[in-house]
Amino acid sequence: MKISAVVNTLNEESNIADCLESLNWVDEIVVVDMESDDKTKDIAYRYTKHVYNHKRVGYVEPARNFALSKTTGDWILVLDADERVPHPLAAKLIEIAEANQTNFVRIPRQNIIFNKWIEHSRWWPDHNIRFFKRNRVEWQNEIHSIPVTHGEGLTLDPKKELSITHFHYTSIDQYLTRLHRYTDIQSKALIEQGYKLDWPDLVTKPIAEFLSRFFAGQGYLDGLHGLALATLQAFSEFIVYLKVWQVQGFKTHAGQQFMDQFESLTNAKRKEFSFWMITTHLERTQGWFKRLLLKIRRKLLFVN
User: Fold this and answer.
1) What region holds the Glycosyltransferase 2-like domain (predicted)?
2) CATH says 3-167 is which class?
3) Residues 6+ apart with CB under 8 A from 22
């Protein structure tokens, strides 16, 4: 039983050494570099002779399958350069490979964003299919796409010690840089699918993203980090649809009808905000009478 690990890179000289150090338990490391301008490849060669080139693309998925084709292991682990495998997780994956009773494994991921482990906001447990038998998993070319799997899989318990450590966004500048790249790709994908801008989406999509992360995803439990991330993710949604509008020629929407529709949208979303504010208040409130009043108040939001 042989385990291979693959890492795709692009200008990762600050990350790649720690990443590859955390893979010292595998039998083979394959690094596929996408035309780095820094010392990424030089550092990678210190840990493995299996370093290959791939043309630079805006995101990693198109290069995944190429990297997988260069491995020789019975089992394959996929890791990003800003990720690490802790010792307990390594031991668990070796155990799973030796038992040979599943085809792929969904591994939780501990996202460290702005120097904090984000435990809510839909960032945890963030299970990803990253460990699998050869030829049982393949990546699609779409950004952030879910890989195609074959056979039955296993999902690891959401425990910190059994999760990949992901040093995600380290600064606001880094977030905004990636936002520009990702929103370009996402807007183009929408257009290719035949989407025509419906301008209310500029209001409803970002707000839905914020509500989903900050309230439904309990981002408020992450404090200021949760608020910042929910707002940034909502802003990202807003930019996606603005870029669609741009490509489609900045079509004009104006007049009384526009304002009437905008007012209707904002009134509906204001009720949604109120619903979630009352709901989170309920979660923190003791006493049956106070809770009853809050429930009545929440129900009355949508009367008439």
Assistant:
1) 4-143
2) alpha beta
3) 84, 85, 86, 90
54-74 pLDDT per residue, tens:
988 766 777 888 999 999 999
Handedness of CA 18, 19, 24, 30 (dihedral sign): negative
What is the CB neighbour count within 10 angstroms for residue 128?
A: 19
Instruction: Kindly report the pTM of this predicted structure.
Output: 0.89
Give the rounded distance of the alpha carbon of 239 from its chain centre: 17
Question: At a CB cut-off of 8 Å and minimum separation 6, what does 230 contact?
Answer: 121, 209, 210, 213, 214, 217, 219
pLDDT tens string 288-302: 999 999 999 999 988
| Dist CA 156 CA 126 (whole Å) | 11
Domain ranges of the chain: 3-167, 172-300
46 Cβ contact list (under 8 Å, min separation 6): 17, 20
